[in-house]
Write a structure and sequence with these properties.
2 strands; mainly alpha
Length: 66
């Protein structure tokens, strides 16, 4: 994923597009990026993200909250 520190916020469309691109790169059996996005849009799939409790909501750099 191209996003990193200070490169902006992600919203649902950016996350779904990034996941679709990732799926197209790894090519799991029977799944494509377009199929993933269609299933998410139809409500027949959901994302379960683990580790969110480990991601800080902000960082301190040079004494400033960012």
């Amino acid at each position: 994923m191209e996003y990193g520190h200070r490169r902006g916020n992600w919203h649902r469309p950016q996350l779904e597009q990034a996941l679709a691109q990732w799926v197209d790169r790894i090519q799991p059996d029977g799944l494509t990026g377009e199929l993933l996005k269609a299933q998410l849009a139809a409500g027949t799939a959901f994302l379960l993200l683990d580790g969110l409790d480990e991601v800080p909501v902000c960082a301190i750099r040079d004494g400033r909250r960012i």
